[in-house]
Design goal:
With 231 residues, this protein is of the alpha+beta class. It has a single domain, classed as Jelly Rolls (Sandwich), CATH 2.60.120.10. α1 runs antiparallel to α4. The structure holds fe (ii) ion (FE2). The site of fe (ii) ion has 5 residues, from loops.
Length: 231
């Protein structure tokens, strides 16, 4: 990462991105796309228009976010958790209010009600700038089905929570543990389900970040949503 004036910026967000890069580097050989994400991170420049004063978290999500971070207990994620805690006052957390989805699509009520994200690197609202890349954190509340969807942007997730469910191409569900990586190729269909604890992850969109998300209709959404609540 670069500073235009050549100074060595040691702010908490810089340290947080460093902790993420260190973790990702250990998976570079096994997950395709991680190398591209690391290259984008290293090319980011400090943003001149990042306003630290615009950092209020929507109040309804504060407790969920706190609980999700408290639940990060894998020792390999400790540096990321610690740096995230230190950065909380400087991060801008935002809810997706249909900015990623066309108006006539439905990613699910629970997604709409509980999603939250913050950017560390991106074209705007982030400490570091890249024109066509985002790196940040993503939160979903308990009992959420984030319905099957796809997008042109290739996507990396690092699951930080102890347990979450994923399925691909509308197939069978599988559970993933803390520290697991998910790579979704461009336009690959994927869905996430969240059990009785909130879900928090690192995410990155490696390119084509302005292309919209599209919902991939599956006929079992209502059943999956009901099962989450009673499990
Ligand atoms: Fe996605």
């Amino acid at each position: 990462m670069h500073n235009p004036d050549g100074t060595n910026d040691q702010c908490v967000i810089t340290e947080l991105i460093g902790a993420i890069s260190t973790y990702l580097a250990t998976h570079q050989e096994t997950i395709s796309g991680v190398g591209d994400v690391l290259a984008q991170i290293s090319s980011a420049t400090i943003s001149g228009n990042f306003h630290e004063t615009n950092s209020a978290t929507p109040s309804a999500h504060t407790d969920i976010l706190k609980k999700a971070i408290e639940n990060i207990d894998d020792q390999h994620l400790e540096a990321i958790r610690r740096c995230l805690m230190s950065s909380m006052d400087e991060l801008i957390w935002r809810q997706d209010e249909d900015e990623f989805y066309p108006a006539d699509s439905d990613p699910g009520d629970s997604y709409r009600a509980s999603n939250l994200h913050t950017l560390l690197i991106g074209p705007s609202n982030a400490k570091y700038y890249r024109p066509d890349f985002t790196l940040g954190f993503f939160l979903l509340g308990p009992f959420t089905l984030y319905r099957d969807h796809f997008h042109l942007a290739p996507e990396l997730y690092v699951n930080l929570s102890p347990r979450c469910g994923w399925r691909f191409h509308g197939g069978e569900w599988s559970d993933y543990g803390a520290g697991s990586l998910i790579w979704n190729d461009s336009n690959e269909v994927h869905a996430t389900r969240v059990y009785n604890d909130p879900f928090i992850s690192i995410f990155a969109w490696a390119s084509d970040i302005n292309s919209p998300c599209k919902v991939f209709n599956c006929d079992d959404w209502e059943r999956v949503e009901k099962e989450l609540v009673v499990k």
